[in-house]
Structure formats: structure tokens, C-alpha cells
Write a structure and sequence with these properties.
Cytochrome Bc1 Complex, Chain D, domain 2, two-stranded antiparallel ribbon, mainly alpha, globular, 45% helix, 14 helices, 2% strand, binds heme C
Length: 343
């Protein structure tokens, strides 16, 4: 906030000195949506653009995302999926100080600082600002036919994830509109971009030429991630695994509690593999036994392969790309698991 007010004052004063006719009030503040600045600069509106928010729709959309369906008389009805809700895999809040930062180490530090889950899906915060979805290796899991239409169309991406990732159904037209209204409330704001004072002055300068506007559009777009990359990697070679001997315990504990237990905690989405159910000791011992293996019991393997949905076990575990969980974070997790097993 402070930075922006300083910039604003400096800007107004400078303009005042330069020429009185430029003494216009700063048009933007820290909470101005990035999309409205882009549009003011002449950028094309995205297909999923919602001009005026309908708060009733926002509420319905929020219920679908947060509770998994329509919230009626204290109960969830019309569920999108019997097994999942969107927030089992996605955050709705920022995962980094600035929107151009996708480094797993800084995302983890941010999650620790703000007490947020650390999840395999990308955050919904800023999702309407992106121009491509399901990037990178997601094709390997879902196939080209499903991914291609979702790559450049947010509506298709939402439908793909409602049906396939959530093991559910597609949203109705009304539900989809509601979810888009809600997601629009999570769009990037000016404060989410790492802009210098002079960059800020440049984008808000009055009387820009077409050339300057185009330049400022490019500048804004360079300040946030427009398509989250996703790289699927193989599990660390069993011979190279540290198997808990080395790693950051504090990080490992956070990953275990805010990522694994997010689904594996008692009463959460998993049925077969429940951790932390009062027999913690046994869980950790069990996980340690599998460190060397390349199968579902091994944290090294399962994080990179996930599981598949089947008729018997419709709930499945998503693959963590290396952007969502780094190899060194897996070593941190192993170190925590080993330390707990020895308690
Ligand atoms: C079981 C886990 C899971 C659930 C439940 C889930 N998703 Fe996803 N979703 C993912 C994964 C994994 C990806 C791909 C990685 C990513 O987000 O970048 C993804 C991607 C997406 C994307 C594209 C994100 C991007 O920036 O590329 C959208 C949009 C999306 N999901 C919407 C939804 C909605 C809406 C729901 C609820 C109706 C939902 N998802 C439920 C796991 C899930
Ligand atoms: C989005 C939800 C989700 C997250 C997050 C998640 N899992 Fe899973 N995991 C599942 C589901 C669902 C299954 C399979 C069905 C079941 O156990 O009910 C599973 C299965 C497993 C299994 C057993 C696999 C087998 O073949 O028996 C292990 C071990 C496991 N997960 C470890 C982890 C660890 C470690 C983490 C954290 C890094 C983690 N999971 C994060 C949902 C999740």
C-alpha cells in the first residue's frame, strides 16, 4: 500500500512540475484489478471476461468451489463430485508474494508464513488472468484429446477438471457462470505485481500513445505467470535417495501436514490410506519401510506417479509436478517421516 501511495504522490508531484495539464489523479490503487488496467490500455477482453460481478452468483460459485456443490439449508446438494471438492487440490489464495514467482522453495516458505495448504493443483488466485491452462505434461495423464480444448479456454479447463480431475460431472451453464463470477473475485490486483515505481508511473501515465500503451500491456503481462508450467519427473533413483538421512525437518513436517494430510488426514478424501489417525507411529514406520521401493508405498514414487481412479477406488492421488513439489522437498518429507518413526 505504502509503496503505491509514495509512487502516487511522486507521480502527481512530478507531473505537476512537468506540465499542469497532466495533473490528473492516479487512476489506480493497490486493489485495482489487473484486467481493468489492461482493458483501459486497449487490450482485448478475454473470452471468459465478466464485466460486472453479480454477488449472488459469486456466492453460489464460491459454494461450489469450497463445499463441492450447492449449499441449501446447511447441507451440500447437487454435488459436482461424490469424492472431491475443488479445494482438495487447489488453493484460492495467493501462493507467493508476487504473481511471477513459481519457485517451489519460495511457495513453501510462503505457505509456512501464511499457514496455507501446499497442494498439487495451481491456485485459483489469478486463474482468470491466465491465457493457458493445463500446460506442460498434463497431456500425459489426460491425453491430447481432453487437454487440447482446455489449453486456451478457461471454461473448457474448468469442465475438464470438474469431470475428470474431480471424478465428477460437468457443471451446468448456471453453475459455470457462478464459478466464473467467483473466480473473477480472485483475479490479480495491482499489488500482486512486482512493479517498480517508474513502471507504475508508466502504466498509469495519462495521454499515452498507442505505442506506449502496447508497451505497457506487454510490461504488465510480463509480471505474472500466464500459464503454469507442469513438468512430470521420474522418482529419484532408489540408489540416490537420501531415505531420510538428510533434509530439512521443518519443511518436511509442513509438507506432511499441509499437503499429505490435506487429503490423508482422518475424515478427508482418502479411504484406504489414512495417516495421523492416532496411530501415527505406525504410519511413519510403514512409510519408512517403503523408502527404497518403487511402488505406491514409497513417498518418492507415489508423489511422482499418483494413483488412478478405478471403480473400486474412485478417489485418486494427483501427480505432483516438480513445480509443485521439488525433489529436495521430497527429501525433506522423508527426513521428517524418518525422524517421527524414531520417536
Ligand atoms: C483431485 C484433485 C483435483 C480436484 C478435486 C480439482 N482439480 Fe483442478 N486441477 C488439478 C490438477 C492436478 C491440475 C493441473 C495442475 C495445475 O493446476 O496447474 C488442475 C488444473 C485445473 C485448472 C487449470 C489450472 C491451470 O492454471 O492450468 C482449472 C481451471 C481447474 N483445475 C479447475 C478445477 C475446478 C473448478 C475444480 C472443482 C470443480 C477442480 N479443478 C478440482 C487437480 C484437481
Ligand atoms: C489431493 C489428495 C491427495 C494428496 C494431496 C495426497 N494424496 Fe496420497 N493418495 C490420495 C488418494 C485418493 C490415494 C488412493 C486412495 C486411498 O488411499 O484412499 C492416495 C494414496 C497414497 C498412498 C498409497 C498408495 C498405494 O498404492 O497404496 C500413499 C503412500 C500416499 N498416497 C502418500 C501421500 C503423500 C506422502 C502425500 C504428500 C506428499 C500425499 N499422498 C498427498 C490422495 C492424496
Amino acid at each position: 500500500m505504502y509503496r503505491y501511495s509514495v509512487a502516487l504522490v511522486a507521480f502527481v508531484v512530478l507531473c505537476g512540475f512537468a506540465a499542469n495539464k497532466y495533473l490528473a489523479p492516479m487512476p489506480y490503487d493497490a486493489d485495482t484489478p489487473v484486467s481493468s488496467i489492461l482493458i483501459a490500455l486497449g487490450d482485448e477482453k478475454p473470452e471468459h471476461y465478466i464485466g460486472t460481478l453479480d454477488m449472488e452468483k459469486v456466492g453460489v460459485g464460491k459454494d461450489i468451489v469450497m463445499t463441492g456443490g450447492e449449499w441449501v439449508n446447511g447441507q451440500v446438494t447437487n454435488r459436482v463430485s461424490e469424492y472431491f471438492k475443488c479445494v482438495d487440490c487447489h488453493n484460492v489464495l495467493p501462493e507467493s508474494r508476487f504473481a511471477n514467482d513459481n519457485d517451489p522453495e519460495s511457495r513453501l516458505a510462503y505457505s509456512m508464513e501464511y499457514n496455507r495448504p501446499y497442494l498439487p493443483g495451481s491456485t485459483f488466485y489469478g486463474i482468470t488472468n491466465r491465457t493457458s491452462w493445463f500446460n506442460g505434461d498434463h497431456e500425459k495423464k489426460y491425453g491430447k484429446e481432453l487437454i487440447e480444448p482446455a489449453r486456451h479456454d478457461l471454461v473448457n479447463a474448468i469442465q475438464l477438471c470438474s469431470k475428470e480431475c474431480s471424478v465428477g460431472r460437468m457443471l451446468t451453464k448456471e453453475e459455470l457462470q457462478a464459478v466464473l463470477h467467483y473466480l473473477t473475485t480472485l483475479e490479480l490486483k495491482l499489488k500482486d505485481l512486482d512493479l517498480s515505481d517508474s513502471e507504475l508511473a508508466s502504466i498509469s501515465a495519462p495521454g499515452q500513445t498507442e505505442e506506449q500503451k502496447a508497451q505497457n500491456i506487454r510490461l504488465l503481462k510480463s509480471k505474472y505467470i500466464r500459464g503454469y508450467p507442469a513438468t512430470f519427473v521420474e522418482a529419484i533413483d532408489p540408489k540416490l535417495r537420501k531415505k531420510g538421512e538428510e533434509g530439512n525437518l521443518e519443511n518436511g513436517e509442513w509438507i506432511y501436514k499441509k499437503s499429505c494430510l490435506h487429503c490423508h488426514g482422518p475424515g478427508k478424501v482418502t479411504k484406504k490410506t489414512v495417516f495421523g489417525n492416532g496411530e501415527g507411529q505406525k504410519d511413519f514406520d510403514w512409510l519408512v519401510k517403503y523408502f527404497k521401493k518403487s511402488n505406491g508405498g514409497s513417498v518418492y514414487w507415489i508423489t511422482r506417479h499418483g494413483t488412478s481412479s478405478s471403480n473400486k477406488t474412485p478417489e485418486y492421488m494427483p501427480i505432483y509436478s516438480k513445480e509443485k513439489l521439488s525433489d529436495s522437498q521430497i527429501e525433506d518429507l522423508a527426513a521428517y517421516i524418518l525422524a517421527e518413526s524414531m520417536k
